[in-house]
Design goal:
Elements (H helix, E strand, L loop, with lengths): L1 H24 L3 H24 L6 H31 L7 H11 L5
Helix pairs in contact: 1-2, 2-3
């Protein structure tokens, strides 16, 4: 059981690292939020799954963890959706191919 717990926790930490990396390399708000929301939710599920397999937990702790996990799995995508909807309504524009061409031209990589 402890090996399963450690593997799940390690996988959760990996997806948190992927989430952090995506936050750094994605070009705009929409792609960053999408990448972070997906990988962060999966990481949360894996981390809580790993903690639930730990032998030190008693029954009330498992119940609390499952409740927190359920609320988080529902709240995280909903909050990201609300954030992106508000951003769209306030006029935040997504990254486009034209923006990429301008960036490439400034760096000397664009060839028409």
């Amino acid at each position: 059981m402890i090996i399963v717990a450690n593997v799940l926790i390690g996988a959760g930490l990996f997806f948190l690292a992927v989430s952090t990396f995506a936050l750094l390399i994605m070009p705009d708000l929409y792609t960053r939020a999408h990448a972070v929301a997906k990988s962060e939710t999966l990481a949360l599920i894996l981390l809580f799954g790993g903690v639930l397999f730990r032998p030190e937990l008693d029954v009330p702790a498992v119940g609390r963890l499952l409740f927190i996990l359920a609320v988080s799995v529902i709240a995280n995508p909903t909050a990201v959706h609300a954030l992106l909807r508000a951003s769209h309504r306030s006029g935040a524009l997504p990254w486009t191919v034209v923006d990429q061409r301008i960036a490439d031209a400034e760096l000397g990589r664009y060839q028409p």
